[in-house]
Amino acid sequence: MEKVYSGRYVNLASLAQEINSIFVAEGWESMVQPMMPAMQAGQYADYMIRATKKGHMHHVEEAIVRVAGTPNDFRLVIEEEHMGALGRELLDRKLLKTVDKEINDGLFDMPMMPQQTQPMMPQPQTQAKCPQCGAPLPPGSRFCSSCGAKLM
User: Fold this and answer.
1) Strand, helix or coil at 70?
2) Which of helix, strand or coil describes residue 26?
3) Which of 11, 27, 109, 131 has the highest local Cβ count within 10 Å?
4) Nearest Cα to 18, choosing from 95, 78, 111?
């Protein structure tokens, strides 16, 4: 089963941890394996959640959930092995519906890519000019050094 998401800017590591915690809350043994964690915000990432549960007569159900892509375009891929009715119900009703709702509610949203901050460039200071002759005036002048006009 595969579901594609786009249009939100989602923290994929947090999403993978949430999927893991859903399995654990339902009594499964589960762990997250970062296959390719994003080194910087906005990069491609790939997480695998492997969950197993022993049932009756040592029957083992296994689910593998992959969360892969970029924060604004990713997919959830669910593979199952020896899954019984209760395991399928967990995947369909609990896991997918919960994750869908939490993604749509913005629970895993991150701020959009941070803008590169530009170093503040000093603003060029405008030098005062004499109102009579237009000559540049040093700061604090009372008279124009060119024409001798009295300054306010």
Assistant:
1) strand
2) coil
3) 11
4) 95
Torsion of the alpha carbons at 107, 26, 95 and 87, rounded to the nearest 10:
170
Element (H, E) at 20: helix 12-25
Q: What is each CA distance from 113 to 7, 69, 88, in whole angstroms?
A: 13, 15, 37
Largest alpha-carbon pair distance within the chain? 106
How far, in Å, CA of 51 to CA of 49, rounded?
6
CA distance 6 to 110: 14
Task: Locate 58 and state its tokens.
Answer: 């040592």
110-122 pLDDT, tens digit each: 887 654 445 555 5
Phi and psi of 65, rounded to 5°? -115, 125
How confident is the model over 130-150, as pLDDT tens digits? 888 888 888 777 777 778 777
CA-to-CA distance for 73 and 69, rounded, in angstroms?
Answer: 6
Structure tokens at 69: 């892509």
DSSP string, 50-65: EEEEE-GGG-EEEEEE
Structure tokens at 124: 């060029």
